[in-house]
Amino acid sequence: MKEAYINCLKQLRNFRKILKIDKDIKRGKLYFTWIKDKTEIIENEKDENYIYTNVIKHTLPNYVITRYTFNKANKNAKSIIKANYTFKDNKYTFNNTNISVEDTKTLMKYVLFKRGNVVWMDFGFNIGNEFGGMHPAVILKNFDKDLFVVPISSKKPTEYARIEKDLEDGKINIEECKKQKDKITEIIELEKINGFRKMLRWARITRMKKTSILRVNFSGTIGTLEGKDMDIISNKICLEFGDNMCNTI
Fold first, then answer.
1. Where are the domains of the chain?
2. Prediction pTM value
């Protein structure tokens, strides 16, 4: 498989060299990237230790556990943190690359990839209006090897842009602007993600999905949403999809 994959990449590189038109060059690059990324995902799926190796190597050392996060953890997770982290300046820093896989799984479930945390994920290539590319996503539920998430974007929704244009043109006032935005149940405006650069972002709950944990960027920043924002997301999911979906997540 690996040898065939390398030969395929070589042929694709040679193919890209003969492309002359800008549109064809762009398509060739996208196709090359898609083949490369898709093949790597397939290969990583076969390696049972791929996830844990990367979490131990990248995620655990990069993620500093605050006293608040520690206090919110369950008894088992607290015990693991005490055994594998150094406590200094009111925070816990990872210090044991020989941590067991079982302990790593526990930290992944109850500390790193828990509900309310925000991780960077690769949503792949989009077709049409599909959501794709590398974006933050807030975790709603952890299924061990899969995560149920809502993607987050820094691009202002067209619905909001249209309402703000009416405000700018004097067609509506600030109060009416807020009312119209609040009526759009599928969009949540996020002023802050703890641990991320401060900027306005938006989550669209109709894009929520169950996705493989292999799509997580294990070297990326892990942030958290405020409790009030998670409450808004939960309430809007109930409004948009009904109580059955609300109770599931």
1. 1-46, 48-112, 114-249
2. 0.82
